[in-house]
Amino acid sequence: MQFIVGTPRITEENNIVFLRPNTRWNDFSFVTEFYATFVSDNDFIPLGEVKIGFSAQTEDIDTYQILQHPFQELPGNFFSLGQHPEYYENLRNALTPHELTTYLSALKDIVYDDNIFEIAYRERVFTESLSRFVSISTIKGQFKEILSTGVALKSYGFTYTHEEGECITFQVNPHSKPPTNVHALIGSNGVGKSHILRRIANTLDKKEGSLKKLNGDPISAYDFGQLIYMSLGVFGNPLESVDFNDSKLRKDQTKKKYIGIYKQDTGQLKNIATEMAKEFAESLFNCLKGPKTKHDKLRNALKLLDAGTNFQSIEFEELSQLDSKEQIIAKASSIFASLSSGHASVLYYITSIVEIIEDRTICLLDEPENHLHPPLLASFIRTLSGILSESNGIAIIATHSPVVIQEIPRSCVWKMDSGGVFSRPNIETFGEGIGEITSDVFNLDMRMSGFYFLLRSEANRGVGFKEIIKSYHGQIGSEGRAIIMAHSPKDK
Q: Are 135 and 391 in contact (CB under 8 A)?
Protein backbone atom coordinates (compact mmCIF):
# COMPACT_ATOMS: atom_id res chain seq x y z
CA MET A 1 0.00 0.00 0.00
CA GLN A 2 1.37 3.38 -1.05
CA PHE A 3 0.44 6.83 0.26
CA ILE A 4 0.61 9.94 -1.93
CA VAL A 5 -0.02 13.50 -0.76
CA GLY A 6 -2.13 15.23 -3.40
CA THR A 7 -5.42 15.19 -5.29
CA PRO A 8 -6.78 11.69 -6.10
CA ARG A 9 -6.17 10.52 -9.68
CA ILE A 10 -6.22 7.32 -11.72
CA THR A 11 -2.99 5.37 -11.49
CA GLU A 12 -1.63 2.19 -13.04
CA GLU A 13 -1.06 0.73 -9.59
CA ASN A 14 -3.68 -0.55 -7.15
CA ASN A 15 -4.10 0.06 -3.41
CA ILE A 16 -3.07 3.71 -3.48
CA VAL A 17 -4.17 6.09 -0.74
CA PHE A 18 -4.26 9.76 -1.68
CA LEU A 19 -4.01 12.28 1.16
CA ARG A 20 -5.29 15.67 0.00
CA PRO A 21 -4.23 18.36 2.49
CA ASN A 22 -6.79 20.87 3.74
CA THR A 23 -4.75 24.06 3.40
CA ARG A 24 -7.75 26.36 4.02
CA TRP A 25 -8.05 25.24 7.63
CA ASN A 26 -5.85 25.29 10.70
CA ASP A 27 -6.13 24.42 14.40
CA PHE A 28 -4.56 27.30 16.33
CA SER A 29 -2.11 27.65 13.37
CA PHE A 30 -1.40 23.90 13.09
CA VAL A 31 -2.13 22.53 9.59
CA THR A 32 -2.53 18.76 9.96
CA GLU A 33 -5.74 17.72 8.21
CA PHE A 34 -6.02 15.52 5.11
CA TYR A 35 -8.89 13.99 3.13
CA ALA A 36 -8.06 10.32 2.52
CA THR A 37 -9.20 8.50 -0.63
CA PHE A 38 -8.49 4.84 -1.42
CA VAL A 39 -7.96 4.09 -5.14
CA SER A 40 -8.01 0.52 -6.42
CA ASP A 41 -8.96 -0.79 -9.91
CA ASN A 42 -9.77 2.81 -10.84
CA ASP A 43 -12.43 2.99 -8.10
CA PHE A 44 -12.29 6.04 -5.85
CA ILE A 45 -13.43 5.29 -2.31
CA PRO A 46 -13.60 8.31 0.06
CA LEU A 47 -12.37 7.41 3.54
CA GLY A 48 -12.76 10.74 5.36
CA GLU A 49 -10.77 13.22 7.38
CA VAL A 50 -7.55 12.26 9.18
CA LYS A 51 -5.07 14.50 10.97
CA ILE A 52 -1.36 13.70 10.94
CA GLY A 53 1.23 15.22 13.27
CA PHE A 54 4.70 14.50 14.56
CA SER A 55 6.75 14.91 17.72
CA ALA A 56 7.99 18.43 18.50
CA GLN A 57 5.91 19.89 15.67
CA THR A 58 5.50 23.67 15.76
CA GLU A 59 2.95 25.93 14.10
CA ASP A 60 5.34 27.06 11.36
CA ILE A 61 5.70 23.52 9.94
CA ASP A 62 2.66 22.18 8.09
CA THR A 63 2.48 18.39 8.02
CA TYR A 64 1.91 18.17 4.25
CA GLN A 65 5.15 20.07 3.61
CA ILE A 66 7.11 17.23 5.21
CA LEU A 67 5.30 14.49 3.27
CA GLN A 68 6.11 15.60 -0.27
CA HIS A 69 7.15 12.19 -1.58
CA PRO A 70 5.14 8.93 -1.81
CA PHE A 71 5.63 6.66 1.22
CA GLN A 72 4.62 3.26 2.48
CA GLU A 73 4.84 4.16 6.15
CA LEU A 74 5.04 7.37 8.15
CA PRO A 75 8.37 8.12 9.82
CA GLY A 76 8.79 6.86 13.38
CA ASN A 77 7.98 10.15 15.10
CA PHE A 78 4.63 10.62 13.30
CA PHE A 79 1.09 9.71 14.40
CA SER A 80 -2.44 10.06 13.03
CA LEU A 81 -6.04 10.23 14.22
CA GLY A 82 -9.30 10.00 12.25
CA GLN A 83 -11.69 12.83 13.00
CA HIS A 84 -15.05 11.09 12.81
CA PRO A 85 -16.57 7.64 13.33
CA GLU A 86 -17.36 7.53 9.60
CA TYR A 87 -13.60 7.45 8.88
CA TYR A 88 -13.11 4.21 10.80
CA GLU A 89 -16.37 2.77 9.47
CA ASN A 90 -15.22 3.50 5.91
CA LEU A 91 -11.86 1.84 6.59
CA ARG A 92 -13.58 -1.35 7.81
CA ASN A 93 -15.96 -1.38 4.84
CA ALA A 94 -13.44 -0.52 2.10
CA LEU A 95 -10.40 -2.56 3.12
CA THR A 96 -9.74 -6.24 3.65
CA PRO A 97 -8.57 -7.20 7.18
CA HIS A 98 -4.98 -7.36 5.94
CA GLU A 99 -5.27 -3.99 4.15
CA LEU A 100 -6.85 -2.44 7.25
CA THR A 101 -3.97 -3.58 9.47
CA THR A 102 -1.44 -2.36 6.92
CA TYR A 103 -3.18 1.03 6.61
CA LEU A 104 -3.48 1.66 10.36
CA SER A 105 0.09 0.56 11.02
CA ALA A 106 1.49 2.66 8.18
CA LEU A 107 -0.28 5.83 9.35
CA LYS A 108 0.60 5.05 13.00
CA ASP A 109 -3.01 5.42 14.07
CA ILE A 110 -3.33 6.12 17.80
CA VAL A 111 -6.68 4.31 18.07
CA TYR A 112 -5.12 1.16 16.68
CA ASP A 113 -1.87 1.37 18.66
CA ASP A 114 -2.04 2.30 22.38
CA ASN A 115 1.73 2.76 22.55
CA ILE A 116 1.59 5.46 19.90
CA PHE A 117 -1.23 7.14 21.80
CA GLU A 118 0.95 7.41 24.91
CA ILE A 119 3.67 9.07 22.82
CA ALA A 120 1.34 11.41 20.94
CA TYR A 121 -0.62 12.44 24.04
CA ARG A 122 2.32 14.48 25.36
CA GLU A 123 2.63 16.56 22.18
CA ARG A 124 1.12 20.02 21.80
CA VAL A 125 0.10 19.36 18.20
CA PHE A 126 -1.98 16.43 19.46
CA THR A 127 -3.66 18.45 22.20
CA GLU A 128 -4.41 21.53 20.09
CA SER A 129 -4.99 20.01 16.66
CA LEU A 130 -5.50 16.26 16.36
CA SER A 131 -7.74 16.03 19.45
CA ARG A 132 -9.41 19.44 19.10
CA PHE A 133 -12.76 17.81 18.28
CA VAL A 134 -12.03 14.29 19.52
CA SER A 135 -11.99 13.28 23.20
CA ILE A 136 -10.27 10.45 25.05
CA SER A 137 -13.71 8.86 25.45
CA THR A 138 -14.13 8.84 21.69
CA ILE A 139 -10.61 7.52 21.04
CA LYS A 140 -10.73 4.76 23.64
CA GLY A 141 -14.42 4.03 23.25
CA GLN A 142 -16.33 4.67 20.04
CA PHE A 143 -13.41 4.63 17.55
CA LYS A 144 -11.81 1.53 19.06
CA GLU A 145 -15.20 -0.21 19.17
CA ILE A 146 -15.74 0.47 15.46
CA LEU A 147 -12.37 -0.99 14.55
CA SER A 148 -12.97 -4.12 16.61
CA THR A 149 -16.68 -4.81 16.01
CA GLY A 150 -17.97 -2.24 13.52
CA VAL A 151 -20.62 -1.06 16.01
CA ALA A 152 -20.68 2.72 16.51
CA LEU A 153 -23.79 3.41 18.61
CA LYS A 154 -24.66 1.68 21.87
CA SER A 155 -27.31 2.01 24.55
CA TYR A 156 -26.11 3.49 27.83
CA GLY A 157 -27.31 5.31 30.90
CA PHE A 158 -26.37 6.78 34.25
CA THR A 159 -27.91 7.75 37.56
CA TYR A 160 -28.04 11.08 39.36
CA THR A 161 -28.27 11.20 43.16
CA HIS A 162 -29.81 14.36 44.58
CA GLU A 163 -28.65 15.93 47.84
CA GLU A 164 -31.80 14.63 49.56
CA GLY A 165 -30.73 11.13 48.54
CA GLU A 166 -33.25 10.32 45.81
CA CYS A 167 -31.77 8.65 42.72
CA ILE A 168 -33.05 9.16 39.17
CA THR A 169 -31.90 7.57 35.91
CA PHE A 170 -31.18 8.86 32.41
CA GLN A 171 -30.98 6.23 29.65
CA VAL A 172 -30.35 6.43 25.89
CA ASN A 173 -31.24 3.83 23.28
CA PRO A 174 -29.84 5.11 19.96
CA HIS A 175 -32.34 3.10 17.90
CA SER A 176 -35.51 3.76 19.90
CA LYS A 177 -38.72 5.31 18.62
CA PRO A 178 -39.52 7.88 19.85
CA PRO A 179 -35.94 9.05 20.44
CA THR A 180 -34.67 8.87 24.02
CA ASN A 181 -31.67 11.18 23.77
CA VAL A 182 -33.45 14.33 25.02
CA HIS A 183 -34.54 14.38 28.67
CA ALA A 184 -36.35 17.06 30.65
CA LEU A 185 -36.49 18.32 34.23
CA ILE A 186 -39.67 20.20 35.12
CA GLY A 187 -40.92 21.81 38.30
CA SER A 188 -41.93 25.10 39.83
CA ASN A 189 -39.57 28.04 39.98
CA GLY A 190 -37.06 27.63 42.78
CA VAL A 191 -37.20 23.82 43.16
CA GLY A 192 -33.61 23.49 41.92
CA LYS A 193 -33.67 22.47 38.25
CA SER A 194 -30.76 24.73 37.28
CA HIS A 195 -28.93 23.64 40.41
CA ILE A 196 -29.13 20.02 39.21
CA LEU A 197 -27.66 20.95 35.83
CA ARG A 198 -24.72 22.70 37.48
CA ARG A 199 -24.20 19.87 39.93
CA ILE A 200 -24.07 17.41 37.04
CA ALA A 201 -21.54 19.63 35.28
CA ASN A 202 -19.38 19.97 38.37
CA THR A 203 -19.30 16.32 39.43
CA LEU A 204 -19.44 14.51 36.08
CA ASP A 205 -15.91 13.09 36.24
CA LYS A 206 -15.38 12.97 40.01
CA LYS A 207 -15.28 9.60 41.79
CA GLU A 208 -17.44 10.86 44.64
CA GLY A 209 -19.74 12.83 42.34
CA SER A 210 -23.51 12.74 41.92
CA LEU A 211 -23.38 10.62 38.75
CA LYS A 212 -22.82 6.87 38.55
CA LYS A 213 -23.02 4.24 35.86
CA LEU A 214 -26.13 2.07 35.93
CA ASN A 215 -24.11 -0.68 37.65
CA GLY A 216 -23.07 1.73 40.42
CA ASP A 217 -19.48 2.29 39.27
CA PRO A 218 -18.10 5.85 39.21
CA ILE A 219 -18.15 7.72 35.89
CA SER A 220 -14.69 8.55 34.55
CA ALA A 221 -13.33 10.91 31.91
CA TYR A 222 -13.41 7.97 29.47
CA ASP A 223 -17.20 7.59 29.67
CA PHE A 224 -18.26 10.84 27.99
CA GLY A 225 -16.68 12.81 25.19
CA GLN A 226 -17.50 16.20 26.63
CA LEU A 227 -20.08 18.28 28.44
CA ILE A 228 -21.71 21.35 26.88
CA TYR A 229 -23.62 23.76 29.13
CA MET A 230 -25.94 26.09 27.21
CA SER A 231 -27.81 29.02 28.64
CA LEU A 232 -28.69 32.45 27.29
CA GLY A 233 -30.44 33.53 30.49
CA VAL A 234 -29.06 36.58 32.28
CA PHE A 235 -30.17 35.36 35.72
CA GLY A 236 -27.78 32.92 37.34
CA ASN A 237 -24.29 32.85 35.86
CA PRO A 238 -23.10 29.19 35.67
CA LEU A 239 -19.50 30.38 35.39
CA GLU A 240 -19.64 31.22 39.10
CA SER A 241 -20.16 27.58 40.12
CA VAL A 242 -18.83 25.35 37.31
CA ASP A 243 -15.23 24.83 36.20
CA PHE A 244 -15.31 24.94 32.39
CA ASN A 245 -11.92 23.76 31.11
CA ASP A 246 -12.74 24.91 27.56
CA SER A 247 -11.90 21.79 25.57
CA LYS A 248 -8.30 21.15 26.68
CA LEU A 249 -7.60 17.41 26.68
CA ARG A 250 -6.79 15.86 30.04
CA LYS A 251 -6.83 12.21 30.94
CA ASP A 252 -8.52 12.76 34.30
CA GLN A 253 -11.16 15.28 33.27
CA THR A 254 -14.07 15.41 30.85
CA LYS A 255 -13.94 18.37 28.49
CA LYS A 256 -16.47 21.01 29.57
CA LYS A 257 -17.60 23.84 27.32
CA TYR A 258 -19.89 26.79 28.14
CA ILE A 259 -22.04 28.25 25.36
CA GLY A 260 -23.89 31.30 26.59
CA ILE A 261 -24.22 34.98 27.17
CA TYR A 262 -21.49 35.45 29.79
CA LYS A 263 -17.78 35.98 29.06
CA GLN A 264 -15.65 33.23 30.56
CA ASP A 265 -12.69 35.46 31.36
CA THR A 266 -14.55 38.32 33.10
CA GLY A 267 -18.03 36.97 33.86
CA GLN A 268 -19.55 40.05 32.20
CA LEU A 269 -22.42 39.93 29.73
CA LYS A 270 -21.46 39.70 26.07
CA ASN A 271 -22.61 42.23 23.50
CA ILE A 272 -25.04 40.30 21.28
CA ALA A 273 -24.56 42.35 18.10
CA THR A 274 -20.76 42.25 18.22
CA GLU A 275 -19.24 39.60 20.51
CA MET A 276 -21.88 36.88 20.18
CA ALA A 277 -22.22 37.61 16.47
CA LYS A 278 -18.49 37.08 16.02
CA GLU A 279 -18.57 33.86 18.07
CA PHE A 280 -21.36 32.56 15.84
CA ALA A 281 -19.45 33.57 12.71
CA GLU A 282 -16.30 31.81 13.93
CA SER A 283 -18.26 28.61 14.62
CA LEU A 284 -19.94 28.86 11.23
CA PHE A 285 -16.58 29.26 9.50
CA ASN A 286 -15.21 26.21 11.30
CA CYS A 287 -18.21 24.19 10.09
CA LEU A 288 -18.03 25.48 6.51
CA LYS A 289 -14.29 25.17 5.95
CA GLY A 290 -13.40 22.44 8.45
CA PRO A 291 -14.20 18.72 8.12
CA LYS A 292 -16.77 17.94 5.44
CA THR A 293 -18.90 16.01 7.94
CA LYS A 294 -19.48 19.21 9.94
CA HIS A 295 -20.37 21.11 6.77
CA ASP A 296 -22.95 18.47 5.82
CA LYS A 297 -24.28 18.14 9.37
CA LEU A 298 -24.89 21.89 9.64
CA ARG A 299 -26.60 22.02 6.23
CA ASN A 300 -28.95 19.20 7.26
CA ALA A 301 -29.66 20.87 10.61
CA LEU A 302 -30.57 24.16 8.95
CA LYS A 303 -32.88 22.37 6.51
CA LEU A 304 -34.66 20.71 9.43
CA LEU A 305 -35.03 24.05 11.20
CA ASP A 306 -36.52 25.55 8.03
CA ALA A 307 -39.50 23.18 8.13
CA GLY A 308 -42.58 25.11 9.18
CA THR A 309 -40.79 27.91 11.02
CA ASN A 310 -40.05 30.58 8.40
CA PHE A 311 -36.44 29.98 9.25
CA GLN A 312 -34.15 31.28 6.52
CA SER A 313 -30.99 29.21 6.09
CA ILE A 314 -28.76 32.29 6.54
CA GLU A 315 -27.66 32.14 2.90
CA PHE A 316 -25.76 28.96 3.74
CA GLU A 317 -24.78 28.06 0.17
CA GLU A 318 -23.65 31.59 -0.60
CA LEU A 319 -21.43 31.66 2.49
CA SER A 320 -20.04 28.24 1.60
CA GLN A 321 -18.75 29.61 -1.70
CA LEU A 322 -16.69 32.36 -0.07
CA ASP A 323 -12.99 31.52 0.31
CA SER A 324 -11.78 34.32 2.55
CA LYS A 325 -12.20 33.81 6.29
CA GLU A 326 -12.54 37.56 6.74
CA GLN A 327 -15.40 37.67 4.20
CA ILE A 328 -17.26 34.81 5.87
CA ILE A 329 -16.83 36.27 9.37
CA ALA A 330 -18.00 39.72 8.26
CA LYS A 331 -21.00 38.41 6.29
CA ALA A 332 -22.10 35.91 8.96
CA SER A 333 -21.74 38.49 11.75
CA SER A 334 -23.92 40.93 9.83
CA ILE A 335 -26.60 38.28 9.21
CA PHE A 336 -26.60 37.26 12.89
CA ALA A 337 -26.98 40.84 14.11
CA SER A 338 -30.04 41.31 11.87
CA LEU A 339 -31.94 38.25 13.16
CA SER A 340 -34.69 38.19 15.75
CA SER A 341 -33.63 37.11 19.24
CA GLY A 342 -35.31 33.71 18.74
CA HIS A 343 -33.69 32.89 15.41
CA ALA A 344 -30.35 34.21 16.61
CA SER A 345 -30.35 32.07 19.76
CA VAL A 346 -31.26 28.89 17.85
CA LEU A 347 -28.56 29.54 15.25
CA TYR A 348 -26.02 30.26 17.97
CA TYR A 349 -26.86 27.00 19.76
CA ILE A 350 -27.04 24.71 16.73
CA THR A 351 -23.90 26.02 15.01
CA SER A 352 -21.89 25.76 18.22
CA ILE A 353 -23.06 22.20 18.86
CA VAL A 354 -22.29 21.04 15.31
CA GLU A 355 -18.83 22.60 15.55
CA ILE A 356 -17.73 20.82 18.73
CA ILE A 357 -19.94 17.74 19.24
CA GLU A 358 -18.22 14.41 19.91
CA ASP A 359 -19.23 10.87 20.81
CA ARG A 360 -21.38 10.75 23.96
CA THR A 361 -21.62 14.49 24.46
CA ILE A 362 -23.83 15.60 27.36
CA CYS A 363 -25.72 18.82 26.54
CA LEU A 364 -27.23 20.68 29.49
CA LEU A 365 -29.76 23.35 28.50
CA ASP A 366 -31.26 25.81 30.94
CA GLU A 367 -34.71 26.97 29.76
CA PRO A 368 -34.03 27.16 26.00
CA GLU A 369 -37.64 28.22 25.39
CA ASN A 370 -36.81 31.87 26.17
CA HIS A 371 -37.45 34.06 23.09
CA LEU A 372 -38.67 31.10 20.98
CA HIS A 373 -42.00 30.86 19.17
CA PRO A 374 -43.52 27.39 19.80
CA PRO A 375 -42.97 26.02 16.25
CA LEU A 376 -39.34 27.15 16.31
CA LEU A 377 -38.87 25.64 19.77
CA ALA A 378 -40.27 22.29 18.58
CA SER A 379 -38.02 22.36 15.51
CA PHE A 380 -35.03 23.18 17.69
CA ILE A 381 -35.69 20.17 19.96
CA ARG A 382 -36.08 17.83 16.96
CA THR A 383 -32.91 19.21 15.33
CA LEU A 384 -30.97 18.88 18.57
CA SER A 385 -32.14 15.29 18.95
CA GLY A 386 -31.06 14.52 15.38
CA ILE A 387 -27.58 15.93 15.90
CA LEU A 388 -27.15 14.05 19.17
CA SER A 389 -28.36 10.76 17.69
CA GLU A 390 -25.50 10.73 15.19
CA SER A 391 -22.97 11.00 18.02
CA ASN A 392 -24.73 8.93 20.69
CA GLY A 393 -25.19 12.09 22.75
CA ILE A 394 -27.76 13.09 25.35
CA ALA A 395 -29.43 16.38 26.32
CA ILE A 396 -30.93 17.24 29.72
CA ILE A 397 -33.19 20.28 29.61
CA ALA A 398 -34.51 22.30 32.54
CA THR A 399 -37.78 23.70 31.21
CA HIS A 400 -41.24 25.10 31.91
CA SER A 401 -42.47 24.57 28.35
CA PRO A 402 -45.19 22.06 27.42
CA VAL A 403 -43.93 22.39 23.82
CA VAL A 404 -40.63 20.83 24.91
CA ILE A 405 -42.41 18.10 26.87
CA GLN A 406 -44.60 17.04 23.92
CA GLU A 407 -41.39 16.31 21.95
CA ILE A 408 -40.14 13.90 24.65
CA PRO A 409 -41.54 10.53 25.81
CA ARG A 410 -42.77 10.13 29.40
CA SER A 411 -39.78 7.86 30.17
CA CYS A 412 -37.47 10.84 29.60
CA VAL A 413 -39.32 13.41 31.76
CA TRP A 414 -38.75 13.95 35.49
CA LYS A 415 -41.11 16.10 37.59
CA MET A 416 -39.46 17.63 40.64
CA ASP A 417 -41.17 19.16 43.67
CA SER A 418 -39.87 21.52 46.34
CA GLY A 419 -39.01 18.62 48.64
CA GLY A 420 -36.62 17.07 46.14
CA VAL A 421 -39.04 14.26 45.24
CA PHE A 422 -39.01 13.11 41.60
CA SER A 423 -41.74 11.38 39.59
CA ARG A 424 -42.75 10.66 36.01
CA PRO A 425 -45.82 12.31 34.41
CA ASN A 426 -49.05 10.34 34.67
CA ILE A 427 -49.63 10.45 30.90
CA GLU A 428 -47.55 9.65 27.83
CA THR A 429 -46.12 13.00 26.77
CA PHE A 430 -44.61 12.42 23.32
CA GLY A 431 -47.06 13.64 20.70
CA GLU A 432 -49.66 14.61 23.34
CA GLY A 433 -51.65 17.81 23.05
CA ILE A 434 -50.53 20.98 24.81
CA GLY A 435 -53.76 21.12 26.77
CA GLU A 436 -53.40 17.61 28.17
CA ILE A 437 -49.75 18.18 29.08
CA THR A 438 -50.55 21.49 30.73
CA SER A 439 -53.39 19.91 32.66
CA ASP A 440 -51.53 16.80 33.85
CA VAL A 441 -47.85 17.69 33.99
CA PHE A 442 -48.26 21.29 35.16
CA ASN A 443 -51.59 20.70 36.90
CA LEU A 444 -50.74 21.94 40.42
CA ASP A 445 -49.13 25.16 39.23
CA MET A 446 -51.90 26.05 36.78
CA ARG A 447 -54.82 25.54 39.13
CA MET A 448 -53.27 27.69 41.81
CA SER A 449 -52.35 30.57 39.51
CA GLY A 450 -53.38 32.63 36.49
CA PHE A 451 -57.01 32.72 35.34
CA TYR A 452 -57.78 29.62 37.46
CA PHE A 453 -57.09 31.60 40.63
CA LEU A 454 -58.83 34.73 39.35
CA LEU A 455 -62.11 33.08 38.31
CA ARG A 456 -62.23 30.71 41.29
CA SER A 457 -61.84 33.71 43.61
CA GLU A 458 -64.76 35.45 41.89
CA ALA A 459 -66.98 32.38 42.26
CA ASN A 460 -65.93 31.74 45.88
CA ARG A 461 -67.14 35.24 46.81
CA GLY A 462 -70.67 34.05 46.05
CA VAL A 463 -71.05 35.78 42.71
CA GLY A 464 -73.31 33.88 40.32
CA PHE A 465 -72.28 32.35 37.01
CA LYS A 466 -74.19 34.75 34.75
CA GLU A 467 -73.07 37.79 36.70
CA ILE A 468 -69.38 36.81 36.38
CA ILE A 469 -69.74 36.15 32.65
CA LYS A 470 -71.45 39.51 32.20
CA SER A 471 -68.77 41.38 34.18
CA TYR A 472 -66.10 39.91 31.88
CA HIS A 473 -68.18 40.91 28.81
CA GLY A 474 -68.44 37.25 27.79
CA GLN A 475 -64.69 37.02 27.20
CA ILE A 476 -64.15 33.70 29.00
CA GLY A 477 -63.34 30.40 27.31
CA SER A 478 -64.79 26.97 28.00
CA GLU A 479 -62.18 26.04 30.62
CA GLY A 480 -62.81 29.26 32.54
CA ARG A 481 -66.57 28.81 32.37
CA ALA A 482 -66.20 25.30 33.77
CA ILE A 483 -64.22 26.67 36.74
CA ILE A 484 -66.93 29.28 37.46
CA MET A 485 -69.67 26.68 37.13
CA ALA A 486 -67.90 24.38 39.58
CA HIS A 487 -67.35 27.04 42.27
CA SER A 488 -70.24 29.51 41.97
CA PRO A 489 -73.52 29.17 43.92
CA LYS A 490 -75.78 26.65 42.19
CA ASP A 491 -78.89 28.84 42.36
CA LYS A 492 -77.46 31.93 40.73
A: no
